[in-house]
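tokens incoming
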């Protein structure tokens, strides 16, 4: 068949833009998007010719539908010709490529880590000669490779590497959201279509010519392919007889055209083509990168002679002339023929677990335990590489091929379990309820039903009852060996209990699990101690989590997430956040989506802790979008809770209270104590930000009474500093001291670095002995992990500075107050920053207070301030403005830092200094 490139018709605009693309200095990326057969491949070939003139090195790749679920299969095509350069990279980047391509062990790299390694590799390869990467049929690239290509494509500026991608329209692809420049490739105009047809098929009868033009609709491939078919003795038929039926998409009509040629081939050649098509042999010259990784078609000269195959000029292998040829070959084969071809391919790829599993799954009809075991092993391998969604399909197929009811039930349970973690709640429910699995009262059913009930709608009560009953049933049945389903039930029960935050349920859980001994895995024992009552059971959890993470490459994504939750409870999350950030993008795309949502929560929590508040806001919004899209109600409100807590810390009290109300209204009726506690913490933090210490105290004692830490209330210890500060500012020094001593006596400093910091701070704030206060402030501010928690450290320094000003004079106070003010400014906590600046001014130091704070008074705040300056009480102001005295108090606490004052007596002078143009 003649090439579309040598005698290209039309496309003047596209060719001009592509010439500019190739000739431009520096790197760049471009996506060509159009329908099948519209000429994208021809334009890519044109780009290759232009690049050859410009002396570029060209590497071509092609997406293969058969490999669209195999992680990094597409990326391997691009990198295969560059293998010699990988050895010249540093050890870190070599290790990344070893992990990705299965030559080394370790946690899978994140998109950013792998993308940076690929950029370095391409830069090295292009150091002597510009490099052009050409990708055809990018819509079939696997998700992992697409993400990396998108990452790389957005960062080519300034280098010597260019990337151009051909995409088929109306086929979803990861490139759709890659934000790369696009060039639409449309059909030819009527004039150009006629010219192309007449150039390649001169002398057509008028009626046939018209028929071809009408059916081709400007599609170049159809204009080239239809005339021989029409002239081959079929011209007398009407269009409906000629093309099967009307109204079908053009690619299907072209497949019918190719089908006549395929039917004319000998049986052996057709079988060879089928094996190549099912294994994803490439189309066109783009297939040269895949040598050594695909089935090699042999003795297929007959197919090449009739235009179905081409010869790759570099490898000499047969490749399909067009992807539609490949599709037609598969569609025309009978089921038995396809199964036979898959069986051959499974043997060809016997050393490639995932590819062998793919072909075995398609080639086997009758139950076969050996095949089922292979599929299960492939599912396990895929899960650890971020392919949980693929693992569900393999496990489901493995269940179908299982020889015993027990194995079939077990594998269906595993498929449902992974489906739930992958965010496929409907599929998880279907796997249990379809009737092909075990009964509704089975342990597997309890796992799935409990999981869906919890995460879809936060139903902790019914899910708790179900799971308790299932564990008791397994216990009573005499289970004696570690059991996968029992472990899942235990872990789910612990997760439910964590969300419920109910003392009775936790105590019942401990009673249930204690006699089970080693039947409960060590990881589950970590969750049991960390997730429930860290104050009473958290000793040694930090070390146990650290030991568990030492075997990271053997952990499933849900194990990683659960251990990271345990790390959060003992405030060592920063150690493991880099792995979560490397993993989360992969899991969102093709892996354990539900666990990815928790990973985003954990990343957000650590960002809040270390002071990366803008990044935490973005992480929270991203998680909120995911939870909304995938109908995970529990995670959605969980995300709202963390966003509310962040807003309260930043002084965005209106937003914080709005989110607090939303979370509380949803969580409290359902008994989701974990979230109602965070809602109370939001109220505490918002009141502290405003300086409304009475309200802060009332919220804080709602979490735990002073002098103790309520059992199984995870916020009880986390709000230690809040309760102490609020108590001190409201004249409750005895309660504050009692609470600080309770923290010391509970050995909170031994449990976590943050608890050590705030315990020392609380003891210092409440100490009456100056020596003890100095010692505790010193311990807090010099704690090795103090800088990891800048918000808490700044609050302690603020309190220390205030104490120093009163005990040792203004000069001694300035360093602590300056550090506190600078930290609050950097974090974006304006009310706290103004409080620190006010104290600094009291020491005689100048501060950068801006008139912007004065202008920030609302009309209502200004009116209340004027009335208060006139001597009215809060009750009298409230009566005039139809507000409660507490609301008036809240407004005044917001007004004071804005005016740079700390007392009601200073209001009149401060208001008098506001310029006329700033009066409300």
């Amino acid at each position: 068949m003649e090439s579309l490139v040598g005698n290209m018709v039309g496309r003047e605009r596209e060719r001009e833009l592509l010439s500019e693309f190739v000739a431009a200095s520096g790197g760049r990326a471009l996506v060509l998007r159009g329908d099948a057969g519209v000429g994208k491949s021809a334009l890519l070939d044109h780009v290759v010719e232009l690049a050859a003139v410009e002396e570029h090195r060209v590497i071509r790749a092609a997406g293969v539908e058969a490999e669209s679920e195999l992680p990094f299969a597409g990326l391997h095509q691009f990198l295969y010709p560059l293998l010699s350069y990988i050895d010249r990279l540093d050890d870190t980047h070599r290790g990344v490529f070893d992990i990705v391509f299965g030559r080394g062990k370790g946690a899978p790299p994140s998109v950013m880590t792998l993308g940076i390694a690929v950029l370095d590799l391409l830069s090295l390869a292009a150091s002597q000669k510009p490099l052009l990467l050409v990708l055809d049929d990018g819509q079939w690239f696997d998700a992992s490779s697409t993400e990396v290509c998108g990452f790389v494509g957005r960062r080519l500026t300034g280098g010597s590497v260019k990337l151009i991608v051909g995409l088929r329209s109306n086929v979803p692809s990861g490139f759709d959201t890659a934000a790369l420049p696009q060039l639409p490739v449309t059909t030819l105009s009527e004039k150009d279509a006629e010219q192309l047809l007449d150039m390649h098929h001169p002398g057509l009868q008028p009626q046939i010519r018209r028929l071809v033009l009408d059916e081709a609709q400007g599609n170049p491939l159809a204009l080239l392919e239809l005339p021989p078919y029409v002239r081959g003795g079929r011209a007398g038929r009407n269009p409906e007889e000629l093309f099967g039926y009307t109204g079908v998409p053009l690619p299907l009509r072209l497949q019918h055209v190719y089908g006549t040629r395929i039917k004319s081939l000998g049986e052996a050649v057709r079988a060879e083509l089928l094996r190549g098509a099912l294994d994803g042999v490439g189309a066109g010259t783009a297939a040269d990168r895949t040598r050594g990784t695909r089935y090699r078609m042999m003795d297929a000269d007959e197919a090449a002679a009739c235009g179905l195959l081409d010869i790759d000029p570099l490898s000499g292998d047969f490749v399909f002339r067009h992807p539609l040829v490949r599709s037609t070959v598969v569609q025309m084969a009978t089921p038995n023929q396809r199964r036979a071809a898959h069986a051959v391919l499974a043997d060809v790829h016997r050393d490639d677990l995932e590819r062998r599993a793919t072909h075995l799954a398609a080639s086997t009809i009758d139950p076969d335990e050996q095949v089922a075991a292979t599929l299960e092993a492939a599912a396990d391998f895929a899960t650890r590489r971020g392919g949980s969604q693929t693992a569900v399909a393999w496990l489901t197929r493995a269940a179908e091929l299982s020889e015993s009811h027990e194995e079939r039930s077990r594998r269906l349970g595993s498929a449902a379990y992974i489906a739930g973690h992958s965010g496929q709640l409907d599929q998880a429910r279907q796997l249990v309820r379809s009737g092909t699995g075990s009964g509704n009262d089975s342990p597997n059913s309890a796992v799935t039903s409990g999981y869906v009930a919890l995460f879809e709608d936060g139903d902790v009560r019914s899910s708790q009852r179900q799971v308790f009953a299932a564990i008791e049933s397994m216990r009573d049945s005499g289970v004696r060996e570690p059991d996968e389903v029992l472990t899942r039930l235990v872990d789910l029960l612990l997760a439910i209990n964590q969300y419920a935050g109910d003392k009775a349920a936790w105590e019942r859980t401990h009673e249930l699990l204690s006699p089970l001994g080693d039947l409960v895995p060590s990881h589950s024992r970590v969750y049991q101690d960390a997730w429930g009552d860290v104050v009473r059971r958290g000793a040694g959890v930090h070390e146990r989590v650290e030991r568990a993470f030492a075997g990271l490459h053997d952990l499933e994504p849900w194990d990683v997430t659960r251990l990271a939750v345990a790390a959060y409870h003992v405030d060592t999350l920063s150690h493991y956040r880099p792995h979560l950030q490397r993993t989360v993008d992969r899991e969102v795309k093709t892996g354990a989506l539900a666990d990815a949502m928790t990973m985003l929560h954990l990343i957000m929590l650590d960002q809040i802790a270390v002071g990366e508040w803008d990044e935490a806001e973005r992480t929270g919004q991203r998680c909120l979008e995911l939870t909304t899209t995938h109908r995970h109600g529990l995670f959605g409100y969980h995300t709202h809770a963390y966003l509310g807590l962040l807003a309260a810390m930043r002084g965005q009290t209106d937003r914080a209270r709005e989110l607090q109300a939303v979370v509380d209204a949803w969580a409290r009726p359902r008994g989701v104590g974990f979230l109602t506690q965070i809602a109370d913490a939001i109220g505490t933090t918002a009141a502290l930000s405003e300086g409304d210490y009475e309200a802060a105290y009332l919220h804080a004692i709602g979490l735990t009474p002073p002098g103790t830490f309520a059992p199984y209330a995870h916020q009880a210890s986390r709000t230690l500093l809040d309760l102490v500060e609020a108590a001190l500012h409201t004249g409750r020094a005895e309660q504050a001291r009692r609470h600080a001593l309770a923290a010391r006596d509970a050995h909170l400093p031994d449990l976590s670095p943050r608890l050590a910091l705030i315990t020392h701070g609380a003891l210092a704030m409440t100490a009456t002995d100056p020596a003890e206060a100095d010692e505790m402030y010193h311990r807090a501010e010099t704690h090795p992990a103090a800088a990891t928690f800048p918000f808490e450290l700044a609050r302690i320094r603020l309190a220390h500075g205030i104490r120093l000003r009163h005990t040792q004079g203004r000069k001694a106070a300035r360093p602590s107050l300056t550090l506190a003010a600078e930290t609050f400014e950097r974090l974006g906590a304006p009310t706290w920053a103004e409080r620190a600046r006010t104290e600094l001014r009291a020491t005689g130091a100048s501060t950068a207070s801006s008139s912007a704070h004065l202008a920030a008074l609302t009309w209502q705040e200004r009116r209340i301030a004027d009335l208060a300056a006139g001597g009215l009480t809060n009750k009298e102001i409230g009566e005039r403005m139809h507000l409660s005295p507490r609301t008036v108090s809240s407004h005044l606490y917001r007004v004071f830092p804005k005016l740079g004052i700390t007392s009601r007596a200073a209001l009149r002078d401060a208001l008098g200094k506001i310029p006329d143009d700033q009066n409300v």
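note: The chain has a mean pLDDT of 85.
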